[in-house]
């Protein structure tokens, strides 16, 4: 949607422009004509430039695409200055293929940071878009030309910091405070200079900047010798894992350069990546160096410095505040779209804590709000509008302490495809009163500790004064000596100045006037003033020296550390006064020079009225000059701290007092300093006592951001309650008025603005007794909603389907505004059915043709540069209800009625259900009968039914909007018979040869009626025919029966069924088979009871059935096995049902536990006597001597150095054996990992070295015996080539070749040599001899006249080394040589940067299989190839086999697992360049 508006400024001669908004956000179009010719269009951007934040020195490009007819012209501009088009600075280009206009910066510099505009213009209009370029400044730049600044004291200080040993390390001594401050400043950001100077008491900010500039240049020159580039300097930060880290990107010229880490000037040892041996760790990823400090404690505080070959490249100050968590954050469970809060309480005040969400740092935003209480003890984090993605671990870090807790977001069911409704509740908010109580306790405790320390400080002050009094006479004597010397110097200076001036006047032949003598007197008076001020400075400097000595003594006592800090703050106040007085002396010198110059100007043509008037004019000029000079000094560099401004103001007042205010007020200076100007001294030159500094600020003004229409307040606190002050705004004095109140409460001075408007914005200054403090009030005008409109807006809006809904809101605030409308968190934009309109002071949302799915939360968000405001409403779209839902529940289905229940509709359309409309159909008929509305209850009882008929129903829901679609039910039968459930299984109570007595229990479900009786049936064993016991007309009334129709010796089983009004139900489960015979005698004991097998958890038993003795012991029918632990007197039955077999396995035993076991035989006559084993049984397998089970066991293994060595041994042994591994007869080192499991043992050396070569022996030993096995593991690598090859001919026709042994010959007894040769006739190489174990070989059949060349290779189990080649050997024949003059070939340079010939391909591998990746790369010199997975190097990982043969780079993963999923990257680089290639590996599940 295009929105047009008239603009007031003309864009073409005689034309008014029409401003339009482009479809591309951020583009503004101005149309020059009201109507455009057919086919003509205004310019527009189809792709606008994107804002860039880029590191200094990188290549920056802005790209834009434009359309328009005729073709627009593209121009660029910047906000500050003009764009300099130069090949090395900036280029404007156009690519005809891509139709892109670009603005390129080959190497961006800090001065390129600005706001740029791109203009697309044709004769019908103009399109403008704005883009910002941000530059990240790096540590130093070799290409940048620095100004040469020669500062001797800065160079000397730098030399002190550079004291190094021969090996590049620093001198082992603690760092001085001055050295520490300069190292911190050298690595600090500019924005931190002010804070560091305030912290360490540096008041000469201008001098500090000059020194720092010179030191930086010198350090950058030193770094350039070892480092080609350094950037991304991140200062130390504490993480959530009890670690602190700092990092920097550094490109070393020599990768082997040594890197050192220091803490407070003392070297700190550190370990490489992956090692936990030391507290400090260095992790290097490419050019990034990350230093980590683990297991943080208070002792870790200090200045950490990184040196490269003795040159400091980076320093960071780590401070550990004494703070802990009194209340930690707790787990929060929040519902979806609800706010969640985490809160904690600290033991000491802290401005802010660091919050982390899922390991990522959090800052205040619309999603996360961070709140800190006034006392700085309670810290809160609010997570707004919680969604499932917000769930995770959140952490708070205060100093080196941290705590964390889970945020659990529970989903909510709602409408299909709709999000949950925004909630206004807060999850996790505990009782604020409890937190306030705990915080108050912590604050009281903290204040009590501070009071105790202050009390100790007060007790120490008398001693300080005593020492100061003792030193004061000594200081006075020194001052007297210095005063006489200074007076002589001043007299000589004045005489020299006067003589020069008089000689100059005589040269010009100008008569000397009497007033000139008066000016000389004034000069002398000024010199006297200067001398007195200098004397005062000396006294205070000596006093400071005394007090500093006392501070050093007190700092040695840890318990008085806070006391010395308080004293140090007092000394800093004196030092501040000293700086003011030093600057006053400098300006007085300028005043003397200026006065001399004014004398000369007066002689050259300026007339003075009289002596007194001349004096006033000259003094006034001096006063103005002084103010100008001082203002220039303060303006230099960065913004100064308020403490500097206060000192400068004192300085200015002193000078104003001396000089006066000009011709009109020439005597004002005399009124202020009458005694000094007349040369009258009221006291001694050196005061007897030190004058205390005047009124000063305990707390200055702070900048204030005031909200339009609200109150604002400025407050400051003086050291003297009796002192009054004056308020200024923008340099003009202000007093209390209707809109502003100025008040004083003791030493606190306040200025309160009752209702802020734009006119109150400005710079406010409070001045009292020569001291001043300033603050800026910035008036912010965030968006605010009209109260009446907001009340209407909040009311829910309900409309019917297909109708419109209109939302309107008025607002005020500072322009421009960004207005956004949301429906259920989804931003709305202009569409067919959505119309957005924003005009002056209001915004409107119109929704057309609404559907039920549009129901949800409406949110309005208005934002400007000062803030954001939101308003919420609810839209409810009414529609027909959805059909009622099932499943249906049958309440009753009898012969007289059918009663059913159903569930209400899932969506009632926004209205309650008024009625349910039913229709009924009898099965077999085609017509439906209307039952009519039955009310809002979801149940219906139909009494108009015929017994045995089946019916189905249609149900609709009726609301005020209409009737829903129908739901059709299943069939229901009226009068369905309900038979009883089966009774319980019949049990045999007794049996004889004539009768069997049975009992049973009635069924749980009687079918809704009473049980009338039972039917009993019997069946012989082996038969399928059930025979009724009772006749159908004589049902059994009782729940027992004596069956007499049985045959002796036959087995029977019985079943029973229950009878109610509907008839007989299902039969019960048949009873157990029972013999029709007289009762039997219990069996006897089993025979030959023994243990056949055992393991650590099982026990196998066997036995023989007991004897059958007629009349005494009958035959056994089954057996029970019982077991008892030795410590338990009770027997436990292993099988609940009797077993008929004569063997059994007991399971679930405890390993090596002691058990007693017995077996009991049973039959129908009962259980016999138990038969126990004669002794207890141990749960363990039978003893087995250790024995190795591998069919073929290796006795020799060759492993390449750096690869893993793995050897598995399988064995059987009982009981579990003791497994020991030895290397050459001694226990294996800790480098080898031993893994033992049941029946197997493994030896693993993760990264083998040559020292791991040896004979490894495994000893498997138990109580039965032991077994041993040995394997020789040889760790080797491709051998190094032999030394130089020499050739000697001792016998004609033969040549003896000798060479120097390979360096690996001593370490590898299997190393041997191979000799190859090549002659001039056959240009190919062929082997002469192999497996040579000495360093000499004689080659026969050497033909005269041929040129020979030999190569010697060193070989071992890994392969052959590179060859050592001999010089060419020729035996000249007597024949004349045939000479062939070959043309001299030109050398060919084949060097090239790496390039992929065959790139990597995508791979998909099943889990557990191997995966092979390969690519081909070329380059000269041979590129170095590195493999990465997820940006982690794999070259040293033993789980991957990596090779590079003739440019074919391959990597083999033997067994692919789920952890191998990810992105793999191969990097090839040589001295000419670098190339990368990547692929992905997808691991499938097991096949």
> What's the number of helices?
12
Report the structural category.
alpha+beta
What does the average pLDDT come to? 79
Number of strand elements: 99
Distance between the termini: 56 Å
Anisotropy-based shape: extended
- Residue ranges: pLDDT <50 for 5 or more in a row? 1-16, 139-162, 508-523, 606-692
Question: What is the radius of gyration?
Answer: 51 Å
Q: Concise description?
A:
18% of the residues lie in helices and 39% in strands. It contains 12 helices and 99 strands. The strands form 22 sheets. Strands 1, 2, 3, 5, 7, 10 and 11 form a 7-stranded mixed sheet that branches.
What do these coordinates show?
With 1487 residues, this protein is of the alpha+beta class. Helices cover 18% and strands 39% of the residues. It has 12 helices and 99 strands. The strands form 22 sheets. Strands 1, 2, 3, 5, 7, 10 and 11 form a 7-stranded mixed β-sheet that branches. Strands 66, 67, 69, 70, 71 and 72 form a 6-stranded antiparallel β-sheet that branches. A hairpin with a 2-residue loop joins strand 23 (354-357) and strand 24. Helix 6 (514-555) packs antiparallel against helix 7 (561-603) and helix 8 (611-635) runs antiparallel to helix 9. It starts with a strand and ends with a strand. Residues 1-16, 139-162, 508-523 and 606-692 have low confidence and may be disordered.
């Amino acid at each position: 949607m295009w929105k047009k508006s008239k603009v007031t400024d003309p864009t073409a001669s005689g034309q008014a422009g029409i401003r339009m908004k482009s479809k591309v956000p951020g583009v503004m179009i101005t149309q020059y004509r009201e109507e455009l010719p057919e086919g003509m269009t205004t310019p527009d951007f189809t792709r606008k430039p994107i804002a860039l934040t880029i590191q200094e020195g990188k290549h920056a490009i802005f790209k834009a695409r434009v359309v328009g007819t005729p073709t627009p012209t593209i121009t660029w501009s910047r906000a500050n200055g003009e764009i300099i088009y130069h090949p090395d600075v900036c280029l404007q280009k156009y690519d005809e293929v891509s139709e892109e206009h670009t603005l390129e910066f080959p190497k961006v510099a800090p001065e390129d940071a600005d706001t740029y505009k791109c203009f697309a213009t044709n004769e019908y209009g103009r399109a403008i878009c704005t883009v910002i370029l941000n530059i990240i400044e790096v540590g130093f730049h070799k290409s940048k030309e620095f100004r040469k600044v020669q500062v001797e004291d800065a160079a000397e200080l730098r030399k002190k910091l550079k004291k190094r040993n021969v090996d590049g390390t620093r001198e082992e001594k603690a760092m001085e405070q001055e050295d520490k401050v300069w190292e911190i400043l050298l690595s600090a950001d500019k924005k931190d200079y002010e804070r560091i100077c305030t912290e360490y008491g540096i008041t000469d900010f201008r001098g500090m900047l000059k020194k720092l500039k010179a030191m930086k240049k010198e350090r950058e020159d030193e770094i350039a010798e070892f480092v080609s580039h350094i950037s991304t300097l991140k200062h130390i930060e504490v993480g959530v894992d009890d670690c602190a880290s700092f990092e920097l990107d550094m490109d070393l010229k020599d990768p082997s350069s040594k890197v050192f880490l220091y803490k407070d000037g003392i070297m700190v040892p550190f370990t490489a990546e992956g090692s936990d041996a030391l507290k400090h760790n260095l992790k290097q990823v490419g050019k990034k160096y990350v230093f980590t400090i683990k297991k943080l404690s208070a002792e870790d505080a200090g200045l950490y410095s990184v040196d490269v070959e003795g040159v400091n490249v980076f320093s960071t100050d780590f401070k550990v505040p004494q703070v802990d968590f009194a209340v930690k954050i707790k787990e929060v469970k929040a519902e979806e779209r609800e706010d969640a809060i985490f809160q904690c309480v600290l033991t000491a005040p802290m401005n802010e804590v660091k919050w982390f969400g899922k390991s990522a740092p959090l800052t205040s935003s619309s999603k996360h709000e961070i709140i800190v209480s006034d006392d700085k003890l309670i810290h809160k984090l609010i997570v707004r509008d919680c969604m499932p993605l917000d769930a995770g671990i959140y952490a708070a870090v205060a100093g080196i302490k941290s705590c964390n807790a889970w945020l659990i977001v529970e989903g909510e069911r709602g409408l299909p495809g709709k999000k949950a409704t925004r909630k206004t509740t807060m999850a996790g908010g505990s009782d604020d009163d409890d937190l306030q109580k705990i915080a108050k306790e912590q604050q009281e405790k903290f204040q009590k500790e501070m009071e105790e320390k202050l009390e100790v400080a007060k007790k120490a002050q008398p001693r300080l004064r005593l020492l100061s009094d003792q030193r004061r006479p000594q200081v006075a004597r020194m001052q007297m000596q210095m005063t006489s010397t200074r007076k002589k110097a001043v007299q000589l200076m004045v005489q020299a100045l006067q003589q020069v001036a008089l000689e100059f006047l005589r040269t010009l032949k100008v008569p000397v006037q009497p007033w000139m003598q008066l000016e000389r007197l004034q000069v002398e008076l000024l010199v006297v003033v200067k001398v007195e001020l200098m004397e005062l400075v000396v006294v205070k400097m000596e006093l400071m020296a005394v007090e500093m000595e006392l501070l050093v003594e007190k700092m040695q006592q840890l318990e008085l550390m806070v006391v010395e800090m308080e004293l140090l703050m007092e000394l800093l106040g004196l030092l501040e006064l000293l700086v003011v007085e030093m600057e006053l002396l400098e300006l007085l010198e300028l005043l003397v020079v200026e006065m001399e110059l004014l004398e000369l100007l007066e002689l050259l043509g300026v007339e003075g009225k009289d002596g007194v008037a001349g004096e006033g004019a000259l003094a006034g000029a001096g006063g103005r000059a002084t103010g100008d000079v001082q203002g220039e000094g303060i303006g230099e560099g960065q913004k100064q701290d308020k403490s500097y401004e206060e000192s400068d103001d004192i300085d200015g007042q002193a000078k104003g007092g001396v000089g006066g205010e000009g011709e009109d007020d020439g005597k004002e200076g005399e009124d202020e300093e009458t005694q000094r100007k007349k040369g009258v001294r009221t006291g001694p030159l050196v005061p007897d006592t030190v004058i205390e500094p005047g009124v000063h600020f305990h707390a200055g003004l702070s900048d204030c951001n005031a909200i339009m229409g609200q109150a604002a307040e400025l407050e400051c606190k003086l050291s003297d309650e009796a002192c009054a002050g004056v308020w200024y705004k923008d340099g003009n004095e202000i007093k209390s008025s209707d809109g502003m109140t100025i008040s004083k409460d003791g030493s606190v001075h306040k200025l309160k603005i009752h209702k802020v408007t734009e006119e109150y914005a400005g710079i406010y200054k409070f001045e009292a007794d020569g001291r001043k403090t300033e603050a800026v009030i910035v008036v912010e005008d965030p968006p605010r909603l009209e109260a009446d409109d907001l009340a209407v807006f909040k009311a829910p809006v309900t409309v019917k389907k297909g109708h419109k809904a209109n939302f309107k809101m008025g607002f005020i605030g500072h322009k421009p505004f960004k207005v956004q409308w949301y429906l259920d968190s989804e931003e709305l934009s202009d569409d067919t059915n959505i119309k957005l309109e924003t005009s002056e002071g209001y915004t409107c949302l119109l929704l057309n043709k609404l559907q039920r799915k549009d129901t949800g939360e409406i949110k309005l968000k208005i934002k400007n540069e000062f803030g954001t405001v939101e308003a919420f409403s609810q839209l409810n779209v009414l529609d027909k209800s959805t059909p009622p839902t099932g499943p249906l529940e049958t309440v009753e289905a009898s012969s007289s009625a059918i009663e059913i229940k159903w569930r209400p509709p899932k969506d009632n359309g926004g209205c309650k259900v008024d009625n349910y409309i039913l229709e009924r159909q009898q099965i077999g008929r085609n017509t439906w009968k209307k039952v009519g509305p039955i009310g809002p209850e979801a149940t219906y009882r139909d009494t108009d039914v015929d017994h045995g008929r089946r019916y189905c129903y249609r149900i609709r829901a009726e609301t005020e909007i209409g009737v829903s679609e129908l739901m059709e039910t299943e069939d229901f039968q009226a009068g369905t018979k309900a038979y009883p459930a089966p009774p319980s299984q019949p049990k045999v109570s007794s049996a004889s040869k004539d009768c069997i007595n049975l009992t049973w229990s009635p069924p749980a479900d009687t079918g809704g009626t009473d049980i009338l009786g039972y039917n009993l049936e019997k069946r012989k064993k082996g038969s399928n025919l059930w025979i009724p016991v009772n006749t159908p007309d004589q049902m059994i009334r009782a729940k027992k029966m004596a069956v007499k129709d049985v045959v002796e010796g036959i087995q029977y089983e019985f079943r029973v069924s229950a009878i109610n009004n509907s008839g007989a139900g299902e039969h019960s489960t048949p009873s157990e088979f029972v013999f029709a015979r007289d009762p039997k005698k219990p069996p006897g004991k089993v025979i030959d009871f023994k243990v056949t097998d055992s393991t650590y958890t099982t026990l196998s038993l066997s036995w023989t059935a007991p004897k059958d003795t007629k009349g005494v012991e009958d035959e056994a029918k089954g057996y029970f096995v019982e077991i008892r632990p030795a410590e338990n007197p009770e027997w436990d039955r292993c099988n609940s049902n009797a077993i008929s077999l004569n063997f059994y396995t007991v399971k679930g035993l405890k390993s090596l536990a002691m058990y007693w076991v017995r077996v009991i035989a049973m039959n129908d006559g009962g259980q016999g006597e138990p038969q126990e084993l004669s002794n207890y049984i141990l749960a363990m397998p039978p003893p087995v001597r250790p024995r190795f089970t591998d069919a073929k066991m290796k006795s020799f293994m060759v492993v390449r150095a750096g690869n893993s060595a793995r050897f598995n041994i399988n064995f059987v042994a009982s009981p579990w054996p003791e497994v020991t591994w030895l290397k050459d007869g001694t226990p294996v080192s800790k480098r080898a990992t031993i893994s033992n499991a049941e029946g197997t043992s493994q030896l693993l050396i993760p990264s083998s070295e040559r020292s791991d070569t040896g004979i490894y022996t495994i000893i498997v030993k138990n109580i039965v015996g032991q077994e041993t096995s040995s394997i020789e593991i040889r760790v080797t690598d491709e051998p190094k080539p032999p030394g130089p090859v020499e050739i000697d001919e001792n016998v004609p026709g033969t040549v003896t070749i000798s060479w120097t042994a390979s360096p690996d010959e001593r370490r590898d007894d299997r190393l041997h040599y191979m000799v190859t040769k090549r002659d001039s006739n056959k240009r190919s190489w062929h082997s002469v001899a192999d497996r040579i174990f000495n360093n000499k070989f004689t080659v026969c059949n050497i033909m005269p006249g041929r040129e020979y060349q030999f190569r010697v290779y060193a070989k071992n189990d890994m392969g052959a080394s590179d060859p050592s080649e001999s010089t060419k050997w020729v035996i000249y024949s007597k024949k004349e040589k045939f000479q062939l003059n070959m043309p001299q070939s030109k050398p060919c340079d084949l060097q090239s940067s790496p390039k992929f010939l065959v790139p990597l391909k995508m791979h998909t591998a099943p889990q557990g299989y191997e995966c092979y990746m390969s690519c081909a790369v070329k380059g000269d010199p041979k590129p170095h190839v590195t493999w990465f997975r997820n940006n982690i190097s794999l070259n040293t990982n033993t789980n991957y086999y990596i090779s590079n043969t003739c440019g074919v780079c391959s990597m083999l993963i033997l067994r692919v697992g789920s952890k191998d999923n990810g992105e793999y990257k191969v990097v090839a680089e040589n001295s000419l360049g670098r190339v990368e290639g990547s692929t992905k590996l997808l691991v499938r599940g097991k096949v």
